[in-house]
Design goal:
By secondary structure, the protein is α+β, with helices and mostly antiparallel strands. Helices cover 27% and strands 18% of the residues. The strands form 2 sheets. A 7-stranded antiparallel sheet has the order 6-5-7-8-9-1-10. A 3-stranded antiparallel sheet has the order 3-2-4. It is globular.
């Protein structure tokens, strides 16, 4: 989300992106436009996989958890919605990883985006992670979509296992953002690309708007 870092973006690969981030109007919480640049025809939320904390290796969708708790599966859905609806034990049974898509979702996402962008170069950027790990500037690596996992491995000792925080192709037809403390990834793209993402069975998705809340403190709407 928008913060002030100890460096400038002028003249860097991230300059165009940060110039287009920000909240369009005052209001509570944080919204999609603080994560994903403005100017895209569509925005999509990709939910990080929920995994059991009991070591069983089980996984579950957000939709299933929402339905079980009796809360709506909505674009601003927070994991706190079902915890408030059904107070959980001290340790929640289901949790999702913050700051990184699970490996299966990353593969599915890269596959869809490759259909759109082909083999053109893609920029993979680490911004806040670079701050937290003591780097002197943002880290940006460039390669094809097929090199995503290689990039993650190459920078692991520098910025940990999260991210990339931002990735986009040379023509900027789409941008993927995975914020360091959120349990979902957001994509800005064309309407066609959004439809491909929403139809991809390997991803749990919902369409969102630039003003959709992304933080954890949204309140579930009341049922009629």
């Amino acid at each position: 989300m928008t913060e002030t870092w100890p460096w400038t973006y002028d003249g860097t690969a991230l300059a165009w992106l940060h110039d287009r981030l920000g909240r369009p109007a005052p209001g509570p919480g944080h919204v999609v436009s603080e994560l994903v640049p403005s100017g895209y025809a569509a925005y999509v939320r990709i939910f990080h996989l929920l995994e059991a904390t009991d070591g069983s290796g089980r996984s579950r969708t957000w939709r299933a958890c929402a339905e079980e708790a009796g809360v709506p599966f909505r674009p601003e859905l927070s994991h706190h919605w079902w915890r408030k609806a059904n107070p959980a034990p001290e340790r929640p049974l289901w949790t999702a990883g913050a700051g990184a898509l699970d490996s299966g979702s990353r593969r599915a996402l890269a596959h869809v985006l490759a259909e759109v962008s082909g083999e053109q170069p893609v920029h993979f950027a680490y911004d806040l992670a670079a701050v937290l790990w003591g780097e002197d500037e943002p880290l940006v690596r460039t390669g094809s979509l097929t090199e995503l996992e290689n990039v993650r491995e190459a920078v692991r000792e520098l910025v940990g296992d999260d991210g990339p925080e931002f990735w986009w192709p040379q023509d900027r037809a789409w941008v993927v953002t995975t914020d360091y403390d959120l349990l979902s990834t957001y994509v800005g793209c064309s309407a066609r690309t959004a439809r491909l993402l929403l139809d991809e069975p390997g991803l749990e998705t919902l369409p969102v708007a630039s003003g959709t809340r992304v933080d954890w403190y949204t309140v579930p709407p009341r049922h009629p």
